[in-house]
Amino acid sequence: MKRILSLALVFLFAANAWAYDFSAVAPSGQTLYFNISGQNATVTYPNVNADIDDVDPEVWTGFAKPTGALVIPSSVTYNGQTYTVTAIGLDAFWGCEGITSVTIHDSLTTIDEAAFAFCSSLTTATIGEGVTHLGRGAFLDCRSLTRVEFNAVNCTTNNANIFEYYDSINFTFSNNTSLTEVVFGSRVQRIPGKLLSYCDGISSLTIPASVTTLGVNVIAGCNNLADIFALPATAPQLDNRAFNNANANITIHVPCGSLASYMSTWSYFSDFVEGDGSFQLSILSDNDEMGEVEILSMPDCSSPVAVASAVAHDGFRFTHWSNGATDNPYTFTLTCDTALTAYFEADMPVQYTVTVSANDASMGSVSGDGTFDEGSEVILTATPNPGYIFVRWSNGSTDNPYTLTLTCDTMLTAFF
Length: 416
Hints:
Blueprint: E1 22-25, E2 31-37, E3 40-44, E4 68-71, E5 75-78, E6 81-88, E7 99-103, E8 110-111, E9 124-127, E10 133-134, E11 147-150, E12 165-166, E13 173-174, E14 181-184, E15 190-191, E16 204-207, E17 213-214, E18 227-230, E19 237-238, E20 251-254, H1 259-265, E21 271-274, E22 281-285, E23 291-297, E24 305-312, E25 316-321, E26 330-333, E27 338-346, E28 351-358, E29 364-367, E30 370-373, E31 377-384, E32 392-393, E33 402-405, E34 410-415
Parallel strand pairs: 3-6, 4-7, 6-8, 7-9, 8-10, 9-11, 11-14, 15-17, 16-18, 17-19, 18-20, 20-21, 22-27, 28-34
Antiparallel strand pairs: 1-2, 2-3, 5-6, 12-13, 23-24, 24-26, 25-27, 28-30, 29-31, 31-33, 32-34
């Protein structure tokens, strides 16, 4: 049975397995295997008897598979000769279920077909700046993959479905819902074709200012992608069918002064928002049961001002923002990436203390003092002893009983 990458394409892999030339320990501690080509080395699999045309080529049978966080070395030394590691070969880490992350250095240029296929525990992948070729299914069936840091400056590959997985029954591709975050490096110039095809878990994508070109079908079938934050001042150019099968309802956020460029070049879309997307604002509630938050306005091309609001639920009140501000709504100038948290507390009533006394305890007594809620009506009574009369309170009132509406701590003396 042959492995199939799509309905009509067969993996065209060489029929002959090839032996590794030597092994070396990676910076992260795993034993890796290499083939020599001139002054360069390619990471390969160790089992020379592997059937690479089979559904499971068993490329690591009889060898300890690498596990944990894997760092591909930039160079290795064998027999006194140092080789630059420039490629990760065909099926190199096929079925290495224990690898949890992979970091690929900047001098590596090639990640070949199915290099990390079926690395089912792989959650993060960092791709270096020097990668120019990504083979089909390089991260095939990595169903735990959630985050990719893509730093390849000029990857010209237009290969299919690099981060997808296929259905194990009919061998056709399905959406990779685990991949939710793709971060492009600040030097990336080209986003290669089909890089994110059918990665349904991605909801937002930021294209750095350095990008000049998008490849074919780059976001095809990303049905949950709702926002693209495009930072280049001029709309990146598009390869033929760059947005083929893309969600036409995506909102495209573009820099101030760039709207005409994007509307012309990216005419596949119709929902454009022009504004300063240089800085991101996120606001959170410290306790969702106590209150919620919302962004009332974001900076636009005419103003750098943002407005955030905190809304307390019944029985609670807003106290302050994480930066110490107490204004609500809170208006501020966004000058950098900003995260704000709103803090709430139980809405306990303000209380005040009433202290009353007699000018001479032998002449009479007083009652009604204590601690009460703000706004309470407190009744104070002066009771003269036989042979004495009440004259007045120290605030001049002659009422007895005396009703006081409480707005602050109060101290009164009854004169007899």
